[in-house]
Structure formats: C-alpha cells, structure tokens
Specification:
Elements (H helix, E strand, L loop, with lengths): L2 H23 L5 H7 L4 H28 L2 H19 L5 H29 L9 H12 L1 H12 L10 H14 L14 H20 L9 H23 L13 H31 L4 H7 L1 H21 L3 H18 L8 H29 L5 H37 L1 H10 L2 H11 L11 H22 L3 H9 L11 H14 L2 H19 L3 H7 L1
Helix pairs in contact: 1-4, 1-5, 1-6, 1-7, 1-8, 3-5, 3-9, 3-16, 4-5, 4-8, 5-16, 6-13, 7-12, 9-10, 9-16, 11-15, 11-16, 11-19, 11-20, 13-15, 14-15, 14-19, 14-20, 15-16, 16-19, 17-18
C-alpha cells in the first residue's frame, strides 16, 4: 500500500480510537463528583472502574479470536456501536448499580476496540514501518487522553456530569461511516469457522469470579472466609477446565501453544505489570488531584497533563527511532526503568508536595509507559505467524487488562483501608474541627461517617486539610506498593529475544509463507536441482555403444 492508501485506511480507525479513548477518559476527572451525586463510596468508585476493566479483560481474547475467524471490519464497527450505546445509557444512571452495569457493556465494546485496532494495523502496516505512523496515533491519543478529562471537567462544572456520557455520540457516528468508506482490508480466505463457545464461557466465568473476589474481599466479606473459598475454588475449577478445553478444540480462544513462543510469554509477564501502572495511575491520580489537592474536575484534568505529555511525546519519538533504525530493545529497557523510577517517586508525594515535582514524576512515568506499552504488541506481532497475529495481539491486551483490573481492585482496597486508618489517627483533630463548625460540622461528620467520597474543595479549611492529608498519603502508599512490580517488566524485557522487525504486512507475510511452503524447503530445492543436473548429464554423455561406433 502507498502512503496515501494507508492514510485513507487509517482515517476511520483513528476516529474509532478517538471515540473509545474520549468516552473512557471524559469521565475520569468527574468520577468523584458522579459518585458523590449518586451517593457512592470508595467501593463503588473502585467498581465503576473495575467493571469496565473486567468486561474488557474477559472480552478481549474473544474479539481477537473472532478477528482471526471472520470479518474484522464488521467486528470493529460492532464493538464501536456497543461501546457508544452503553455510554449513552450510562448518562441516564439513577444509582451506582445502573452506572456499573452500563460500564460493563462499555468494557465489552472497549475489548473489541482494544484488540481490533492493533490487529487491523498489522493488516495494513508492517512492524518496521509502524513507527512512522506513531505520530498520528500519538496525536489522537493526545486529543482523547488530555482533551477528554478537560472536556469532562468543563462539562461537569458548567453543565452536568451526565453530558460526559453523550459527548462521544456524534464522533461515533462519523467513525462508523469512515470505517465503512475508507478501511479496506485484504480479503480473507473462506474457511469453515469453529467457535469455541465452551472456552468462552469457562474463561469468562473463571476470570470474572477471580476479579470479583479480589474486588469484594476485605470489604463485603473477609479474605479468609467461606465466600472467599467458594469464589476462588470456583475460579480455579473453571480455569483448569478452560485449559483442558483449549488443548482439545480445533480453534481455541487462547491457544496454549502460544506460550512456547518465548517472546509471547515474556511479553505477557511485562504486560501484567504495565497494566497495573497504566490503569492504577489513571484512577488514583484523579483521586489525588481532587481529594488530596482540593482541585475541581476541570483543574484535575489540567493537572494530569504532564503524565499524558510524557506518554505521547516520548512514544512518538520512540516509534520514529524504531522505524528509522529497526532497533527496539534498548528503547524498551530504558522505558521499563523509567516506569519503575516514576512509580517510586510518586510513592514519595504528600498532599502539599511542590506540584512541579509531582509533574516531573508524572512525566517520567508517562515516558516509561509510552516506550513500553504499544511496543510490546508490536514485537509480539512480529514474532508470531500471520494466522496467530489476532489471538497474540488480543492475548497481550488481555493480560494487560487482567493486571490492571486486579491491580486497581487490590490497590483500591488497600487505599480505602489506609484512608480509614489515617483519618482514624486524627480523630481528635477531626472532632475538634467539626465541633467548631456547629450544625454544619454535624452534617459534614454524618456524610463522612457514611463512607461517601467527599467533595473536598467545598469543605471548610479546618476539615479539608485533614482529608487532603489522609488521601495524599494514601495515594502515595498505593504507588509505593505498586512500584516493585515494575522490576518484572525490566527483567522480562531484558530477556526478550532481540528479533529483527519485519518489513512485511500480515497479508504479505502470509503470502510469502504460503509460497515458501508450496515451493518446499531450501534443502528440498537443492535436492531437486542435483537430480535435474544428474539426469541432464546422463542424457548428454555418450554411452559405451556410441563411443565404440565413433571409434
């Protein structure tokens, strides 16, 4: 494909990415306000995020496998429709249960967009050339990740938080039309399709039970309890059954043979800790800005720009360097080290830390994620066969989402406990501050006792400083606990095979492999040539009778 053809095909894909990012990030700075309005606490806050991650995690490998079996263009449009309709309905939520339910459907659509975007890229752009187009993806991610929180914060402060869920609708309509008109994918060979329905059910049940247990344990029931035993036992049984099914079926959802590929296995390990860093920081930084620094929704969006700037600027530069030189390993090792440093430094912040320092720490973390996250998918696509690209790409996204979901759930529970302990340690100060406020203090005390997340920027200074201090130290504690996981990313990337990046797209590689198979191996070709030469020499060499006659 020419550059012009690639650009035309990418138009709808980029718009679809923008819609997915915008619909996800536009509510990030508004969640404290939304939960306050719907009377939700820290558990509900964690579940609003976890529900989407859970559905994304479970559905990603399913979308990826379907992409290897059927029309990827249609699947992309379908996932986009599901995502945006769920977003629109979420705007009418009357309580946290309805909001969480719609977030589940958002996650189903996001799983498709997450997997299919990477798969379709492999159809039209070779691994070596993909760096040249990272600037475009960086620009779209910038509009979505930086613009989303700003738009969401402005809408929440100026109109109403419900409009955050409607803002992506016009973009979605345009995206679906553009994908239909501009995205032209190579035709897939017709073949009999066998969908692993049993595997889908077992994977969904096993992962869902495990993640729901992680989310609820410690809040709804004790970690060591009958409920924990039943949920973990059920998850283990379902996942063991899933392994047996995947070994037997002809078209497994997650082929276990993929783990024989060293690049895939190590990339899975790295993706798990990257998921914790990526999803965890996006959730807890918003809480830090609003609950520890007293920012409103709009200000919170502005204050997270340094991290997004680090991710987008550095990922674009790294992509261009990889495309130019074909070397990826040194860039990814540096990125994994920056991820560790960024998380560790964020683990040292307080509610009153100089914001220039906080911005620097966020930029470092964003830079590290930008150098690692997308390139993990790139090198896996480069290392597997063309027919495995779909399931391999979705596999990496699956484990990244799995790590993020478990990380957010565990870290959210840890943060809730830490906040309660810190506020409890200052109970005397809090009682004194509330008593000095009279009836207003009693109302604030009742709201805090209910467990609801407060709108910190509206609180009196005497109470506000206690709440900000507690949340500031709790968020820092969460980052400090998450930091050691980044060591896994460093080790996994160090031991990745340093394979050369291919200059062929998925379709070109498939045709090359097919031609090579039909022509036989180089050894077989050499044998054929020797036989042909031998026969030719026999044909032109005079026999004994012919020589006698000549004499």
């Amino acid at each position: 494909m020419t550059h012009r053809q690639v650009m035309q095909s990418l138009t709808g894909l980029l718009m679809g990415m923008f819609v997915s990012i915008l619909a996800g990030t536009v509510v990030s700075t508004s969640l404290p306000v939304i939960l306050s309005d719907l009377h939700g606490g820290q558990t509900a806050y964690t579940w609003v995020v976890t529900a989407t991650l859970l559905a994304t995690t479970v559905s990603t490998p399913i979308w990826g496998k379907l992409a290897d079996l059927t029309n990827r263009k249609l699947l992309l449009q379908l996932s986009l429709v599901i995502f945006v309709l769920a977003s629109a309905i979420a705007g009418f939520s009357q309580d946290t249960s309805m909001l969480i339910t719609m977030r589940v459907f958002q996650g189903l659509g996001a799983g498709g967009l997450t997997a299919l975007t990477q798969i379709v890229m492999a159809d039209i752009i070779s691994p070596r050339e993909r760096g040249k187009y990272m600037g475009l993806f960086g620009a779209v991610m910038a509009l979505g990740t930086v613009g989303g929180p700003l738009i969401g914060g402005f809408i929440t402060d100026a109109i109403n938080w419900r409009w955050n869920f409607f803002v992506a609708l016009p973009f979605a309509v345009v995206a679906i039309i553009l994908i239909q008109k501009t995205l032209h994918l190579p035709a897939q060979a017709k073949r009999k399709v066998s969908i692993d329905y049993v595997g889908i059910v077992l994977l969904s049940a096993g992962v869902s039970l495990l993640l729901i247990w992680v989310s609820l344990a410690g809040n709804q029931f004790e970690w060591a309890s009958a409920s924990s035993f039943l949920m973990v036992g059920g998850a283990v049984v379902a996942l063991i059954a899933f392994v047996f099914v995947e070994l037997k079926v002809s078209e497994p959802i997650l082929p276990l043979t993929m783990f024989k590929n060293r690049t895939f296995t190590l990339s899975v390990v790295a993706s798990i800790s990257v998921g914790v860093s990526m999803f965890g920081t996006s959730v807890f930084l918003a809480q830090y800005m609003q609950l520890a620094r007293g920012a409103n929704a709009t200000q919170s969006g502005l204050m997270t720009i340094p991290m997004m700037a680090g991710l987008l600027i550095i990922s674009t530069i790294a992509g261009a360097l990889i495309s130019k030189h074909g070397k990826w390993k040194a860039i990814m090792v540096i990125g994994s080290v920056l991820q560790l440093v960024g998380l560790f430094m964020l683990g040292t912040i307080h509610f009153n830390t100089n914001f220039i320092l906080v911005s620097l720490y966020m930029f470092i973390l964003g830079a590290g994620l930008g150098m690692v996250m997308q390139n993990l998918v790139l090198i896996v696509q480069n290392a597997v066969t063309p027919k495995e690209i779909g399931v391999a790409s979705s596999g990496i996204a699956f484990f990244r989402s799995l790590g993020g979901t478990i990380g957010v759930s565990v870290l959210g529970a840890l943060m809730g406990t830490k906040v309660a302990d810190l506020i409890g340690s200052k109970a005397a100060e809090m009682q004194s501050a509330l008593a000095a406020l009279g009836e207003k203090g009693q109302a604030i005390g009742a709201a805090l006792a209910s467990g609801n997340i407060p709108a910190v920027h509206t609180l009196p200074d005497s109470v506000r400083v206690i709440i900000e201090s507690a949340y500031g130290d709790a968020v820092a504690h969460v980052f400090f606990v998450a930091a050691p996981l980044s060591i896994l990313t460093i080790l996994a990337i160090v031991f990745l095979p340093n394979l050369e990046l291919s200059n062929q797209t998925r379709d070109q590689r498939a045709k090359s492999d097919s031609e090579a198979t039909s022509q036989g191996s180089p050894l077989e070709e050499a044998e054929h040539i020797l036989v042909d030469v031998s026969e030719a020499s026999v044909a032109v060499t005079p026999g004994a009778e012919e020589l006698t006659a000549r004499r």
